[in-house]
Amino acid sequence: MSGLNETHDPSLTSWVESIGSSDFPIQNLPFGIFRRKASDEGFRGGVAIGDQIVDLQAVVAKSLLTGTALEAATAASASTLNDFMALGTEYWSALRLALSRALRTGAEQEPQFRDCLVPQSDAEYTLPCTIGDFTDFFASIHHATKASGVYRPDNPLPPNYKWIPICYHGRSSSIEVSGVSVHRPSGQVRPSKDQPPHLALSERLDHELELGFYVGSGNARGESVTIDEAENHVFGVSLLNDWSARDVQAWETRPLGPFLGKNFATTVSPWVTTMEALAPYRAAFSRAADDPSPLDYLTSAANSESGAIDICLEVLLQTEKMQRDGHPPERIGISNFVDCYWTLAQLVAHHTVNGCNLVPGDLLGSGTQSGPGREESGCMLELTSGGRNPVTLSNGETRGFLEDGDTVVFRGWCEREGATRIGFGELSNTIQTAHSLRDS
Amino acid sequence: MSGLNETHDPSLTSWVESIGSSDFPIQNLPFGIFRRKASDEGFRGGVAIGDQIVDLQAVVAKSLLTGTALEAATAASASTLNDFMALGTEYWSALRLALSRALRTGAEQEPQFRDCLVPQSDAEYTLPCTIGDFTDFFASIHHATKASGVYRPDNPLPPNYKWIPICYHGRSSSIEVSGVSVHRPSGQVRPSKDQPPHLALSERLDHELELGFYVGSGNARGESVTIDEAENHVFGVSLLNDWSARDVQAWETRPLGPFLGKNFATTVSPWVTTMEALAPYRAAFSRAADDPSPLDYLTSAANSESGAIDICLEVLLQTEKMQRDGHPPERIGISNFVDCYWTLAQLVAHHTVNGCNLVPGDLLGSGTQSGPGREESGCMLELTSGGRNPVTLSNGETRGFLEDGDTVVFRGWCEREGATRIGFGELSNTIQTAHSLRDS
Questions:
Q1: A349 neighbourhood in chain B, CB within 8 Å
Q2: Residue of B nearest to A227 (CA)
Q3: Which residues contact B77 (CB under 8 A, 6 or more apart)?
Q4: How would you label A417-427 residue by residue, b for 16+ Cβ within 10 Å and e otherwise?
Q5: Is the bond into B255 cis (omega within 30 degrees of 0)?
Q6: Of A137, B99, B314, B358, which sits with the fewest C-beta atoms within 10 Å of its C-beta?
Q7: Closest C-alpha among A241, A260, A261 to residue A317
Q8: Chain B hits for A171, Cβ within 8 Å
Q9: A-chain residues near B223 (CB < 8 A)
Q10: Interface contact A257-B257, CB threshold 8 A
Q11: Distance in angstroms (rounded) separating the CA atoms of residues B167 and B347
Q12: Which of B169, B348, B366 should we substitute to test contact with A (largest number of A Cβ atoms within 10 Å)?
């Protein structure tokens, strides 16, 4: 497996206590932007380990690093990660290596780094970076087939699906971090072709289980990124929920794509796991024998060998009643990014083949990640066949789509024989009781 | 006509010489970001008058303003107009009034303001602001009918067209100011259904004649902006060219909308004419008797009375040969924003009805503005019926779509009996000879 180095060694342990089965062992070291809860501190960069955060501003202030790692930490200690993301793989790697060495059991720098820890339980988060542009793909063929099949059972896949990594531009301003409330949107709906449309609160509110990849170093307008260069332009990955109002979306989408059905809210988990941390979980990319081979600009030996990534993804639901009754969130969907029809490198190569310029901090959503089965649904639209077959929860409640007070939780992790399990933390948001309509 | 004040008085003249029939009389006073050409000066805010720029940084440094106007000028003298745009109508108006008074014939402050002038011939421009999100509408029914009719002559308009101001999210990173070269993009095309798609340079490169409205003060996520509040959230308007590769667009657009066919380049003119400056050119909004009335959230008395704006728009083309031969750019299209199917206030009210948050500096494209006739085409797709009926220029050259070396120029202006003509300056870009393909 290429890309493995001492930071991935599964025998590494940290002097940070009680890491146990945490999502954040020393092999992970994801980046985020935090401050102490309800404080007037400035937001700043940090790295998660166990249940602690390494405060990079403190690390820089105490002069605990040197050289490239210090330059990287200085950039990463700002109030957004954009400058750090722009530095590129050499700097990201240098800082990861320096932190890995300083946090290992027996590290000489333990006392100094111990003074830089902030408990995650004391922290609050904001977006990891300023997101200039948000592109959302449609890269899971199982989602494309099942979700489109709700509307077009005989012919669910569009003719370009197996040729183009289909995507659209999303909205940046309404991207928020885990924990914020999501309001139920209003919009034009047209439940029947026999009636004119009207303005209403969405009755078909849905989540979409996605990964969000952050662009690291960008490319100039007019220049494309080859598939072999593509991953060097990606900093890392978070969980992403592309909240969707299916009734609004259905009426507005043709001819120019989804708009108000999507842009009221998108949420991301606070920690960004670097591409380097994902090295142990790479997998081969291949196509079914009767599928067309991707065009040359979407093909490379390295992509075929290890372009896919084995990332488990999970959706859990906790209704307001479950929360009151002390029931934990309950799994309603599970899938794996390894089943995605397109690889990350293909998404980047396609996005830039026309010379579109990517900018550090841009966000690329994978699209809803689903498997072929009902239990592998990344959204309610698939799980309940558009509300026709509601799902029954263990307490007897049913859901066709999401209701006010429902909390949707996403989790993601990588595990493989011979590697340490790493996780992405949690993305959790509760649906707010709707604002009153201004018009109806 | 509501919104008129002393700054619109057509009898006003300025002590700035040789304004003549310039786009920028004292009744206009548009804002932009400039510096002296090829200098190492910082970019900063300025206001156009005649062939000069009032350097707002100099105005602030010399303490020529007080109170609200000074606060506004301080914000507007920064390297982007975002902070100024965020201040809201009271501040924009105060600065306009103060500048109008200082620049009038006979103004006491003439000598001090004269020291703040920079000739436009010495200036270069950058984007007026950081554009967070770019939304592009499809608001001209003549464009929608004619452009869609190229592909679907029997049924050009989608069923939602007369109910929803259709739009999609565009790309922010590739928006550039007038003057930059536009490269011909590559992309997947599928000229025949009998053949698989392939990667190629676009052979159907097109302009789109649009207005670009900049958001001023924003709204919080979850809160909508009513139609009567809508225009208070808009700072002003520029010309916008939404460059399009029709062959790439045709193959990719279904199901999620245009992407690589659009996001390689969008260009805007450097000067932003404020909504206040447009007050004399307002017009009634109405619908044909057999068209549906817009839903309540898209309706108001003020919108019916004066929601439309009378803005003439013009496309000119200059081929490389014309340029060599000294032929000026030649008009190939003319239209008027007053013919738009939706008003600006309707676009804003629709955009936010789901609680989508607008941010100062966001850009709202009007969509291609066309009239019903062939000569009123805002793009080549309409003008040449998708290349089938090429246009013949006065020197005998023909064009189905744009060729390398072609320069596309947009102009826009407002004129009306009893008001002074104001213009938007020029938006001009030349198509660059294509980069070599990486793959074919």
A1: none
A2: B438
A3: B44, B45, B56, B57, B59, B60
A4: eebbbbbbbbb
A5: yes
A6: B314
A7: A241
A8: 133, 169, 356
A9: 435
A10: yes
A11: 9
A12: B169
Q: Using a CB-CB distance cutoff of 8 angstroms, which residues of chain B are in contact with residue A185?
A: 354-355
By Cβ distance, the residue of A199, A255, A297 closest to B353 is: A199
CA of B232 vs chain A CAs: smallest distance (Å): 18
Q: Is the pLDDT of residue B94 over 80?
A: yes
Cα–Cα nearest to A135, from B171, B262, B176: B171
Secondary structure of chain A in HEC code, one letter for each residue: CCCCCHHHCCCCCECCCCCCCCCCCCCCCCEEEEEECCCCCCCEEEEEECCEEEEHHHHHHCCCCCHHHHHHHHHHCCCCCHHHHHHCHHHHHHHHHHHHHHHECCCCCHHHHHCCEEEHHHEEEECCCCCCCEEEECCCHHHHHHHHHHHCCCCCCCCCCCCCCCEEECCCCCEEECCCCEECCEEEECCCCCCCCEEEECCCEECCEEEEEEECCCCCCCCCCCCCCHHHHEEEEEEEECCEEHHHHHHHCCCCCCCCCCCCCEEECCCEEECHHHHHHEECCCCCCCCCCCCHHHCCHHHHHHCEECCEEEEEEECHHHHHCCCCCEEEEEEEHHHCCCCHHHHHHHHHCCCCCCCCCCEEECCCCCCCCHHHCCCHHHHCCCCCCCEECCCCCEECCCCCCCEEEEEEEECCCCCCCEEEEEEEEEEECCCCCCCC
The C-alpha atoms of residue B116 and residue B77 are separated, in whole angstroms, by 12
CA distance A108 to A81: 28
Q: Is B143 a catalytic site residue? A: yes
The percent of residues in chain B predicted with pLDDT above 70, rounded, is: 98
Mapping DSSP to helix (H, G, I), strand (E, B) and coil, where does residue B77 land? coil
Q: Compute the Cα dihedral for B86, B89, B91, B92 and give only its sign.
A: positive
Q: Are A353 and B260 in contact (CB < 8 Å)?
A: yes
**Which amino acid makes up residue A198?**
H
Strands B205-206 and B244-245: what pairing?
A: antiparallel
DSSP string, B335-360: EEGGG-SS-HHHHHHHHHTT-PPP-T
Phi, psi of A281 (to 5 degrees): -115, 20
User: What span, in angstroms and rounded, lies between the C-alpha atoms of B278 and A349?
Assistant: 44
Per-residue pLDDT of chain A (440 residues; tens, 9 = 90+): 479 999 999 999 999 998 999 999 999 999 999 999 989 999 999 999 999 999 999 999 999 999 999 999 999 999 999 999 999 999 999 999 999 999 999 999 999 999 999 999 999 999 999 999 999 999 999 999 999 888 888 888 999 999 999 999 999 999 999 999 999 999 999 999 999 999 999 999 999 999 999 999 999 999 999 999 999 999 999 999 999 999 999 999 999 999 999 999 999 999 999 999 999 999 999 899 999 999 999 999 999 999 999 999 999 999 999 999 999 999 999 999 999 999 999 999 999 999 999 999 999 999 999 999 999 999 999 999 999 999 999 999 999 999 999 999 999 999 999 999 999 999 999 999 865 444 33
Nearest CB to B173 within list A133, A258, A292:
A133
Q: What is the C-alpha to C-alpha distance for residues A100 and A97, in angstroms, rounded to an integer?
A: 5
The residue to which tokens 């698939």 are assigned: A382
Question: Nearest Cβ partner of A297 from B133, B199, B245?
Answer: B199
CA distance A247 to A106: 57
- Please count the residues of chain A: 440
The 10s digit of each residue's pLDDT in A45-54 is 999 999 999 9
Q: Please list the active-site residues of A.
A: 143
Strand order from edge to edge, sheet including A31-36: A117-119, A52-55, A44-49, A31-36, A123-126
DSSP, collapsed to helix, strand or coil, labels residue B228 as: coil
What CA–CA distance (Å, rounded) separates A28 from A30?
Answer: 6
